[in-house]
Amino acid sequence: MDLARAMPLGSKIWASEIMRGAPAIQDFLDTTLTQWVRSRERAVKRWIADGKLKPIEPRVLLYMIWATTQQYANAAHEIATLEHGELSDEAFERAKRQIIETILGGVVAKRDA
Predict the structure, then answer these.
(1) Does residue 21 surpass a pLDDT of 80?
(2) How many helices (DSSP H) and strands (DSSP E) are in the chain?
(3) Which CATH class is domain 2-13+24-107?
(4) Which of 9, 44, 81, 101 is most buried by a 10 A CB count?
(5) Among candidates 102, 101, 96, which has minimal Cα distance to 88?
């Protein structure tokens, strides 16, 4: 979220490229991004096997994180309208904490006490 806030144009350009069918970056998606996602899937599956995470689909988790973080850049105007102005640093930090707590609360396995 910090990166999307600091460099919202990058997020917007990425989203625009993807919505147009990725004509300029399809090779990157097929190679670099696919390899990166596979490595993260393996890590999530290890955490599941180790009992650290609930049984989840790793890609769904990644998509959820990406969607949430990019929303703050791609829909900054919408958020500013609904919040009656841009988010203050304090409000942005609260949003980040809530998102982290919500996502982690949904995937972290409960430990037996």
Answers:
(1) yes
(2) 7, 0
(3) mainly alpha
(4) 44
(5) 96
